[in-house]
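Lab notebook, bench 4. Still working through the backlog of constructs that have no structural model yet. Next entry is a single chain of 459 residues. Request: give me the structure tokens for it.
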Amino acid sequence: MSVHVIWPEGPLAMLTQIEADRISHNTKGDLYELYRSCSLAVLNSGSVTDNSKEMLENYRDFAINVMRNERGLKIELINPPASSVVDGEIIKIIRDHLYAVLRDIVQIKVYQHEKLLQMMSAEEVSEQEITSNYVFLLLRNAGVMRGGLKPNLAVCWGGHAIEQDEYDYAYRVGFALGLRCIDICTGCGPGIMEAPMKGSLTGHCQQGCVEQCRLIGLTEPSIIAAEPPNSMITDLVILPDIEKRLEAFVRLGHTMIIFPGGPGTAEELLFILCIKMHPDNRYTTLPLILTGNERSKDYFDALERFLIKCFGEDVTRFYTRITDDPETVAQKVKQSLKTVRDHRTLTHDSYSFNWSLNIPWELQKSGDVTHESMAALNLHREQEPWKLAAALRSAFSGIVAGNVKEKAARLVAERGPFKLHGDKDIIESMAGLMKDFIEQGRILIEQRDYKPCYEFEAD
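Model written out:
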């Protein structure tokens, strides 16, 4: 048996006995399995997988204890992955990420949940306001918001199932951003989520500002269990669910870049488009760039055909497409950051958290993906465009869950594929887009014999 001990620092060095008992192997509290799976994912940082069940089975003898003692708190790792240990010591960045898991699991499931309940009991506070303030508290406590800094954070979204040349292109974009000392925020996994971070770090290094380089990874428990964080991240934050994770991206980031991906990237794009289409956001600034190399052109063409079919040609005014040109992307981002700074200065909005965005409750409300919730989605044209975008976002989110999240995948195995209903042209365009994703190999890292977790039925 291999045992390694690490010592959290600062506020993390002190937990109540109740908190320690809820997450420790010795007591097998109600949060232990969640804490164990997230910690195991961090210990596997840099590995490429989207199969949480396989990862957990490969390390069935791994356990983690959290114990109070005279020095405060210690974390005991039993049989951690060998790749996380060098000369008998846990790698420094992995230790930092383990502390982040401890911080976020405790605050999500204990402190912040209680604060959320208190806020809900206050008078004249909407569910939207409560959720946004909850996201703010989580990001503030994680230390990723820096008061007084000018807007400088580019959010990069994209898939993990990509080809090497697409990875290289995202790296080149990150490098061009790093040469301008622009920081990166991604979903923290492999593929596109890693490449721009690696490029940005190299660019920062060449400009002599590597100590200021921030590489922020935002995830949530069911995602991190399927996608271990990449090894480039300097700041890891675990949000409670996918909806709060997506809100954290758009509140924290200053400009958005979308690289090639699969249904998860379509979900992210629809999340942003829903916000930009909402009439309350007509005067807000949320720059959005879609970019990839020449290989990626077919991907973005398919995505754009789908968007135009659902929302009309007008949808293209909400984003800029740039093909195979990292320098232009970086220049556009730098220009957009100045626009964001000027806009927030004029409106007296925070540089570090975009309070002015109205994120509708349809995007904020969370819940389990089930056959019933998927069947109930309103995929019909007779509604406001932003509401259709919200429903489509939920549809793709459910497909992602059925592909990689253990709970939803189990439901599909037991009851068959999720069934999605809607207008004939919308359903056909969704089916066509998913067919393109499958043919382009953009669903899973290991896509052999992929069996769809969904079925489309026109009304």
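Notes after review: The chain has three domains: 3-125, 146-347, 361-458. The chain is about 50% helix and 15% strand. Flag for follow-up if needed.
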